[in-house]
Please model this.
Amino acid sequence: MAIERENLLALPLDVARERISAFLEARGEPRFRVDQVFRRLWADPVRTFEEITELPRALRSALDEAFTIPGLELVTEQASSDGTRKFLFRLDDGQSIETVSIPDGDRVTFCISSQAGCALQCAFCATGVMGFARNLRIDEIAGQVRALALMSPPLRATNIVFMGMGEPLMNWEAVSATLTILNRPEGFGIGARHITVSTVGVLPGIVALGARPEQFRLAISIHAPNDALRRRLMPINVKYPLAEVIAAARAFDRRVTFEYVMLGGVNDQGEHATELARLARDCGAFVNLIPLHPGGAGGFLPSTPSEMRDFAARLRREGVEVAIRRSRGMDIAAACGQLRVERLRRRAPARPDEDGEVHVSPGVGPRLDGGAA
Ligand code: SAH
Model:
């Protein structure tokens, strides 16, 4: 009778340690072996128990009979001329997810996914186009960081943003356990202030994140400064309207960041800046203006650099702190969902892609006329 081996990487950190400890104790192993095994889960990861050469061979085999430590399968990697690298991983059920590594001076930020696909259907986002498949498990979220640490040479993150595929606060249990793994010294040891959870404004999730004692950062994807426009760009606004999102941001005990993707002629006008400034002042938010990454969805156009500067200047005059983000990985389709969309497209014989660039729904209007969106 085959006994199911337990996946140690799919367990919350403390539970994994208990499992290892109970297993070793039952075998009569010395106490120090617990740490020898435990640190190999995340802090100093290995691909197989066999690689933990400081353990006796018989113990390595016994661990392998009781547990698994599965890795993510790397399907493809793209490197941008600016140093940004994008990875597509295949999961055990055939789903695929993306992770992006973004170097910037001394920092290396990993942008990680929390769901396969996404249910939210934001009008400009490539991930929304593919729909929602499922939540990722702990070993699949934290496993993205682990997989890059296992590459040669290892790729180590100093910062993490939950800005890959999916809505992290709709997969809170696994995301919360992952935050612990990322932050604790027995995990990846990344400071809580260097870990940012990005959300469309899922209220219960914001409360849960705020209740954590660590100083994890919260970014809210605002993208529109009033309910009418936001509903059209972000359907979730029907369930969680702006006023409630702003109230949640005010109640959050740390300073929040607003993400605001600049859509030419859609949300980048002077009156939008004035409305946005009021919201930001209301909850003391810092505003990040993000250039629209081409190849998202919905046929939107990016605002021009001078329009972005004007918008930022207006926010500043209204007493709001603001930064204009540089777009990274422009040549590798590095925005949310784009690499997976590109792979699917390449497989479709109906639409050959000579240069590997992605253009989702080219020519389709943004539909801000009260139409289908
Ligand atoms: N669901 C979460 C996290 C994933 S998306 C959230 O929405 O915050 C991370 C950020 O990328 C969000 O602000 C999202 O709106 C933005 N984004 C999606 N598609 C984009 C594109 N084509 N160009 C620029 N930003 C994009």
DSSP finds twelve helices and 14 strands in the chain. The pocket of S-adenosyl-L-homocysteine is lined by residues 122, 124-125, 163, 167, 198-200, 221, 259, 261, 290, 292-293, 296, 335-336 (CB under 6 Å). Residues 76 and 88 are 5 Å apart (CA to CA). Residues 13-26 form the longest helix (14 residues).
